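Hello again, I could really use a second opinion on something today. My current little project is about how a certain protein chain folds up. You're getting the sequence in one-letter code plus the fold written as tokens. Here's the protein in full, and shout if anything looks odd to you:
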Amino acid sequence: MKPAAFDYAIPDTLDAALALKAQHGDEAKFLAGGQSLIPAMNFRLALASLLVDVNGLAELNYIHRGGDGELRIGALTRHRQLERDPLVKQYAPLIHEAMPHVAHPQIRNRGTMGGSLAHADPAAELPVLTVALRARFKAQSVRGERWIACDDFFHTLFTTDLASDEMLTEVALPPLLPRTGTAFVEFSRRRGDYALMGVAAVVTVGENGACQQARLVYLNAGEGPVNARKAAGVLQGQTPSPKLIDEAASVAADSEIEPMGSVHASPDYQRHLAKVLTRRALKQAFERAQT
């Protein structure tokens, strides 16, 4: 398949890129890694009259800590950088653990954090990870900038809160609380395939070992990242135990996720996977929090 005809622009500044987006709106698409956009255009699932190539905007490629302890990541940061950066490993271990699960090395070499998040594929890892970590997203346009909370950013299938003239330029991850453990687990038919089910777990325990906070977020379990608040509530204030973890896993799998099924897995099988993976993720996250 070949894409429909389009124009192509290579702005040399962020302001120039935003001006083109303001002029063309939804008809213009930002081209970063292109690992999702180009296949979608080839199959005519995405249409654009103008591709705005932003690969030259080096100011959007960075990873550093802010004065408030937040980890700031530019939208053009490649998946491979996230996988290998020491700051990510230290301050966002959930992302460090999950990145090797993203597709194949060739795709991680080109794909960008901002591109994956703006694409909002419900089977992608980065949307789930950022929701689990309570990220904030900076959107910029010629009108100015605004910050969007993670729970407001993802709307539904391939749809975010970004306006037609906006660009996602930065992700801010708040520092993890003391005695916090994280874990990411997914299951796919083959290494590099889209996961049939996956879960990110973030738990914080008190000095007495009881769970103070919990977050469980699922991929390929609905029309976007599925934040299982009821299941997390089961853990709140309780001392972790196999029985408690089983209960949380059942609540999430039976009443909170909405898997759509595919040729590779029925919704019932995906719910079964969710229970199994949740048990593994919570067990690992609690062990890490306590040690």
